[in-house]
Design brief:
CATH class of the largest domain: Alpha Beta
Number of helices: 21
Low-confidence stretches: 1-8
CATH superfamily of the largest domain: Malate synthase, domain 3
Mean pLDDT: 94
Structural class: alpha/beta
Shape: globular
Radius of gyration: 23 Å
CATH topology of the largest domain: TIM Barrel
Helix content: 40-55%
Strand order of the largest sheet: 2-3-6-9-10-11-12-13
CATH architecture of the largest domain: Alpha-Beta Barrel
Length: about 575
């Protein structure tokens, strides 16, 4: 389309051949969805979609083997990679040597992005995945926000409060988490099929921001990413190809892009060396994505009645399989010269109860002290209010060092703990209760209701819940019902059955309505969420992902958004 051509009869996106945009037209979004940016995304889609389909089929094949009784194991074929001492990941870029505390949050709303960047954290991970409901509006506004954040021009005017938000003098370094390989983007079609969601997220952000990022906060490197939900090194190999293609098209050096991989699936813990090896030119370490890891443990062992989890509140880092996972991640990262990042502190400040707030902060301090003593180089927080306490713990232990990658200290490294397959698979211990079933249901329903309404990061009962914790609630209920788990009901043993869940859902829906108020309950999508959550908990086969099953409920197509402009 010629740049000086007369305006089309209606606003629409200027798309390259084979690309259709089905999301609502907005002039701000059009500045992101340019012809060149969409051509870049389409190129990624066309080159890598076959590899992604193959990787997803291999995931399904592996799950079928687990259902038949096979256990995840270290792969004998890649033993030379694990045991070889002659390779290391590329040196850590100076801009991200210090990652002692990182804050996470959705890429939209805009005010939240500014607050996170100004929070005092070393890094802000802007999320297009578990903390974001992937509506068209959220995804595109998130891209606008990140473009402006990298440019240093992001501002927000809160008219109701008469307050203006803008970046401070030392904002956090930006990492971006695209969606997982399994999630589609139904508003963007390439050759008639939905694009792979993470390639849309990565492609649009990289295309618009790589130059400004490298010349600014990246100090010659970047952009920086977090990569979620991988199960095997073949999936890391696809990301390697994506990065190399992007670097080549942008004319920047190989290894400029860096990414931290979230080890948040049980199969991936047996592939950590292999994942780092694939990404060794682009690696920024590994992260203990512990909430999704618990979800994956249940999903992997969904057919095993001997692997029932206790109440989710009891599945913490003191459990042997969780502690072993953390230790092996630390050992693996430090052996290969990269950061070993700790897990999420999901607490949020309790403003109306000083004693309860201090008790919650003390739990955070103890958890973070455990992490830094174990050898972690940094950790995650869900709320700015936690950052001073976490920084004090990590900086006090590190004594002026930016990380402990090269240090011999750290419980896991100093003790020389040899983590075995059996350590990583040891069933967790603890009670299973009707109250646990109730809490799962209450949290799960409220999260789904918020997600359907466009919010992916939801404060519930003094914790910041995202899709990962909602997934634990869902799959644990399903697991207990599937295997008829014995639950403690105040000293009386009852069996988990669909009838029990139906009664619990009815009672917890009434409780939620009382807590949020009748008007908000009526206007929200709580009833719909209750039906979805109940259906997923009682399904004959466990759905892979709550968000994948419910995704079509938030897709809104505007078929004329791109086609009228095509010549």
């Amino acid at each position: 389309m010629a740049t000086n051509a007369a305006a089309p009869p209606c606003p629409c996106y200027d798309t390259p051949e084979g690309v259709d945009i089905l999301g609502r037209y907005d002039p701000e979004f059009a500045a992101i969805l340019t012809r060149d940016a969409l051509a870049f995304v389409a190129g990624l889609q066309r080159e890598f979609r076959g590899a992604v389909r193959y990787a997803m089929e291999r995931r399904r094949e592996a799950q079928r083997r687990y259902d038949a009784g096979e256990l995840p194991r270290f792969d004998p074929a890649t033993r030379p990679v694990r045991e070889a001492g002659g390779w290391a990941c590329a040196p850590v870029p100076p801009a991200i040597a210090d990652r002692t505390v990182e804050i996470t949050g959705p890429a939209e709303p805009r005010k939240m992005v500014i607050n996170a960047l100004n929070s005092g954290a070393k890094v802000f991970m802007a999320d297009f995945e578990d903390a974001l409901s992937p509506t068209w509006e959220n995804l595109m506004r998130g891209q606008v926000n990140l473009r402006d954040a990298v440019a240093g021009t992001i501002t927000y005017r809160d008219a109701a409060r008469g307050r203006e938000y803008r970046l401070g003098d030392r904002p956090a370094t930006l990492f971006v988490r695209p969606r997982g390989w399994h999630l589609p983007e139904a508003h963007v079609l390439v050759d008639g099929e939905p694009a792979i969601g993470c390639l849309v997220d990565f492609g649009l952000y990289f295309f618009h921001s790589h130059a400004a990022f490298r010349s600014g906060q990246g100090a010659g490197f970047g952009p920086f990413f977090y990569l979620p939900k991988m199960e095997h090194s073949r999936e890391a190999r696809i990301w390697k190809g994506v990065f190399e293609r992007a670097e080549k098209e942008a004319g920047i050096g190989r290894g400029s892009i860096r990414a931290t991989v979230l080890v948040e699936t049980l199969p991936a813990v047996f592939q950590m060396e292999e994942i780092l090896h694939e990404l060794r030119d682009h690696s920024a370490g590994l992260n203990c994505g512990r909430w999704d890891y618990i979800f994956s443990y249940v999903k992997t062992f969904r057919a095993r009645p001997d692997r029932l989890l206790p109440d989710r509140a009891l599945v913490g880092m003191a459990q042997h399989f969780m502690r072993s996972y953390s230790y092996l991640l630390i050992q693996t990262c430090h052996r290969r010269g990269v950061h070993a990042m700790g897990g999420m502190a999901a607490q949020i400040p309790i403003k109306d109860d000083a004693a309860a707030n201090e008790a919650a902060l003390e739990l955070v301090r103890k958890d973070k002290l455990r992490e830094v003593r174990a050898g972690h180089d940094g950790t995650w927080a869900a709320h700015p209010g936690l950052i001073p306490a976490i920084r004090e713990v990590f900086e006090g232990h590190l004594g002026g060092r930016p990380n402990q990658i090269d240090a011999a200290a750290g419980d896991a490294a100093r003790a020389g703990v040899a983590v075995t397959e059996e350590d990583l698979l040891q069933p967790p211990r603890g009670a299973r209760t009707v109250e646990g079933l109730r809490h799962n249901t209450r949290v799960g329903v409220q999260y789904v209701a918020a997600w359907l309404s466009g919010s992916g990061s939801v404060p519930l009962y003094n914790l910041m819940e995202d899709a990962a914790t909602a997934e634990i609630s869902r799959v644990q209920n399903w697991q207990w019902l599937r295997h008829g788990a014995a639950l403690d009901a105040g000293g009386v043993e009852v069996r988990a059955t669909p009838e029990l869940l139906a009664r619990v859902v009815e009672e917890e829906m009434a409780r939620v309505e009382a807590e949020v108020g009748a008007e908000r309950f009526r206007r929200g999508r709580y009833a719909e969420a209750g039906r979805i959550f109940s259906r997923q908990c009682t399904a004959p086969e466990l759905d892979d992902f709550l968000t994948l099953d419910a995704y079509n409920l938030i897709v809104v197509h505007h078929p004329g958004a791109s086609s009228p402009c095509k010549l």
